[in-house]
């Protein structure tokens, strides 16, 4: 019970954050929770160390290095012009961002696009005087929804595809999620416009080409990007040929980042630019979630729900709710053994644990990455500002999947 109380206190602190003059950062709240669970002997130091998923930590580290190289070289701002120069107004810009980031997240994973997309989005926010909050929500929602229709779009999809032995995973995920994804991305635009209607002015946007600041670094990061794309495509091809074989994303990130670390004379600066607060947040989250898992409370609750007797929509909604408590990747791991092995149940589980990221900040790792990255440059969005829009979008997502399951997948 103690780990659950600690977790609920951490969630409460993150949802409030401002205590008079004192502002608590998300990583501070999570780190305090993890430390308390160790001090109160709810988890041993050995278990705490083994609870940390270093594959995810190092994946994020190397992707942060690549992202920093994009920013410091000026290549990211150059690309933002090339990609979005045809957006004539805020409407078309937001719509383009939603679909570009959404589709890319299905290939490069939602966490990767959250890193690059947040930086790119904030550049667009600054250049066109658009609310950073609108931009952050655009990035967060689009990478969450876009990652649903690919088994490599996010970690929980990959876990379910591999451990659930999903046959022909790319085709299966596409069949169950592509149409809902398109519908949900369109509604993301409509809901954002509803909540931020004052930002959607009719004035024409002026796009100015910005010269690349560090040509040498830009060439190196371009080479790294080519390696990244080739390795991602290789991973997709391998998944088609032998779905049971996994080429870990951390290897892809490490190999892609190596040219930057080896050949750039700004390597120390780039490594210093890594978002270590976000890495500490995830390390702490792994420890705290493990202590909650060891308490047995979540497992007993899940057992009592009898997932195997549930319909697809019930599994979908349960996955969303459990993900708010323990985050989506742990939720997928916890729920998978209790679900039956039917493709319908597995796809409902993957969709639910992914769409959970739209409900609250804590529902997805990509949300944390986007918000922590934005806070480095002085922008943020509160728990309640996120949830206000997130609740509306999640309800729409539930309706979309309910209709899709009943009409198209009888």
From TrEMBL:
Residues 24-344 form the Citrate transporter-like domain. Its main location: membrane. Coiled coil: none annotated. GO terms for biological process: transmembrane transport. The chain crosses the membrane at residues 56-81, 93-122, 134-153, 173-196, 217-241, 247-264, 276-293, 313-336, 348-369, 389-409. InterPro entries: Cit_transptr-like_dom (IPR004680). It is found in: Cell membrane. It is a multi-pass membrane protein. The keyword Secreted does not apply. One of its GO terms (cellular component) is plasma membrane. It holds the Pfam family CitMHS. This is Transporter. The lineage of its organism: Bacteria, Pseudomonadati, Caldisericota/Cryosericota group, Caldisericota, Caldisericia.
